[in-house]
Amino acid sequence: MNHIIKYLVFFFSFILSLQLNAQKFSVSGYVKEASSGEVLIGATVVDKNNPGTGMATNVYGYYSFELAKGSYTLMVSYVGYETKQVDITVDKDISINFNLKEEASSLDEVVVTATRSDENVSSVKMSVEKLDIKKIKSIPALFGEVDVVKSLQLLPGVSTAGEGTSGLFVRGGSSDQNLILLDEATVYNASHLLGFFSVFNPDAVKNVEIYKGGIPAKYGGRISSILDIQMREGNNQEFEASGGIGSISSRLTAEIPVVKDKSSLLLSGRRTYADVFLTFAQDENLRNNTLYFYDFNTKFNYRFSDKDKVFVSGYFGRDKLGFQDLFGFDWGNSTVSTRWNHLFNDKLFLNTTLLYSNYNYGFDVNSAGTGFNWKSGLEEYNLKFDFDYFLNNNNTLFFGANAIYHIFAPAEITSQDNNIQSFNLQNDYAVETALYISNQHTISDKLSMEYGIRYSSFAKIGPDSVSIYEEGLRKSPENEIRTEAYGNGELVKYYGGFEPRLGIRYLVNSTTSLKASYNRMRQYLQVASNSTAGFPTDRWIPADYHIKPVIGDQVALGYFKNLKDNAWEVSVEGYYKWLQNVVDFLPGEDVLLNDRIETAVADGIAWSYGAEFMLRKNVGKTSGWLSYTLSRTQRQIEGVASGEPYLARYDKPHDIALVLSHKFSERLSLSGNWVYSTGAAVTFPQGRYIVNGQNIPYYDDSKRNTSRMPDFHRLDLGFNYDLKSRSEKFNHEINVSFYNVYNRKNPFSIEFRQVNNNDPTFDSSEDGPITSTRPAAVKTALFGIIPSVTYNFSFN
């Protein structure tokens, strides 16, 4: 701990030594949207005659910078909004707020990002992608359900597990290596309907940002990416409502100004109604089935003064799936975020956050007189303090701390059946803490840096029971020599370490920059799963006496170029990532009911590398992007694949995405996307054997992931037509989309079994006709072409 304090004191002393020119005065305030009072994130406030002097607003719409005594013209801008100019005289500290009006629609300019037009070149940030919620809503989607997560899968370096799934695999990382935040609260399972939709209702979302590398010191806990999603605050000027009626779900959002200019309430709900249609089915078995999910988002805020504002937001979602009275399955997330923004002075800004997150699932089985109930879940309580200190025009300091209390409930099984024994897997408890400090430093007009350090720690605590195994032998029940018991709150195992972060930007000229970044991350929680789809039954396991935290290091280099007055963006990024203490399953092991998880897994190393290419057009009647990712992801773990390097399940060497939208007129627009990727790496059976008349596949673990699924590709199209309205306060539109336009049969699974010409599930068009019974690979595709229609509306 003494070393930590020394490092922090040195860092603070170094930063404070940069404070020069005390004769300057601060200019600070908030930038908001005029019609709703929503703060604008990333709006720029600069001196018109010296655009290099100024600041972009933070995630709460706040800015602060310094000017010498004199007269200035401030220029405030935000993409998609009218630029505002204000003359000021500076002879003391000034606080000034700005309200920007949205620009009128124009055929000559269609904005697709919510950032300054040259941010990709001028910012120190790299490996970061932002998607404007309006653009997300224009992308064609499965069943017309606008999906935040699936939109991210169209970006370079981000891939999917397969058809329809909403899991994210970022730069060779597994899905559990992504930290998903909703108003800063952790979302542990971001999927609905077994992965076909994500839990984020687009009507409630304000800002979407994903960090693939160069991750700032304020973030930690995952080694691959940070997905930071912020909810809208709600209109504090006038009542507003919006919603939509789609093919499988409907949604409604209300924004209520509780106290004009000071307080607002957002209420947003979404529900599918497949279960409603099932009640009209002729088949009685179908009528007794259950299939639906719902989301509810809410957010309340109150501004006590220009220095204090409170936010309370929550998300509550659930899935229910049932087959008659034989099987029932439900899972869901709950998050609560309570935040207090306090401005100590024009330079020091504090965000204090108290967070709660709960993810749980359960299922009931009642078949042939045998029945049981399964419950599992996890909770976390998180307290955070995040400070922004606007030191001077060349330095902005960020520092803070957080502490998380984790509760893991792996499994509780209860049964009224004498043939099934009720039992509990022991709960796990842990405390995770972190301290961080970083600085955004403008060294010269050409060179800027963001550097910082984070210290994270993880304490596994009791009650716990730990098996001790004979040294040098595999951790297995037969090699256990004793058990050690730990009482409530007693320390079982402690891990911790420093996580340095560094980002550098060199501005070659006003349209070209070179960037580099390095970050080290520690991840103390992992998912034990045999699939890549992110099923609700995935088991989260913490670092403990035997399982070490994963440590990830990543370096990245990038070239960024803007053309034709920032209308076009070109970027190339290369990265290399290496990981320590990565775990994988040992052959033949299962973790779902294992109370000694260390006996089922082994750890080792992993590495991934690749190049990402992006061409993006931001303005004009036609806009969009083309991305291509070339990558490789491998692992090497003793006891797996004979100890030799092998491909990760989600290794996809080639990934292409083309996303385009075209505005034909003020009312009619067309959007489309085409995707292609190499098939996922898989392990196919090498043979079979028969036990009691049942075919049992045989797998050779030395050939783990040496085969591949067929390559994946698909085209989606969507049309949006703005309906005329007699009232300016009422707007409505029709969206017609076609998923998988050319009806590509992308296999979701491949089953090896005996087939013949009479097998209705076997498609002989690919494998040729079968004249006799023989083993064959039967491919199952989930979706052909799927049309959908959605009616959207809004009024105030």
From TrEMBL:
Annotated GO CC locations: cell outer membrane
Localization: Cell outer membrane
Pfam families: CarbopepD_reg_2, Plug
The keyword Transport appears for this protein: yes
GO MF annotation terms: siderophore uptake transmembrane transporter activity
InterPro entries named among the record's database cross-references: Beta-barrel_TonB_sf, CarboxyPept-like_regulatory, Plug_dom, Plug_dom_sf, TonB-dep_rcpt-like
Key words, A-Z: Cell outer membrane, Membrane, Receptor, Signal, Transmembrane, Transmembrane beta strand, Transport
Signal peptide region: 1-22
Name of the protein in its database record: TonB-dependent receptor
Organism annotation: Marivirga arenosa
Lineage, opening ranks: Bacteria, Pseudomonadati, Bacteroidota, Cytophagia, Cytophagales
Family: Belongs to the TonB-dependent receptor family.
Topological category with respect to the lipid bilayer: Multi-pass membrane protein
UniProt GO BP: siderophore transmembrane transport
TonB-dependent receptor plug domain span: 144-222
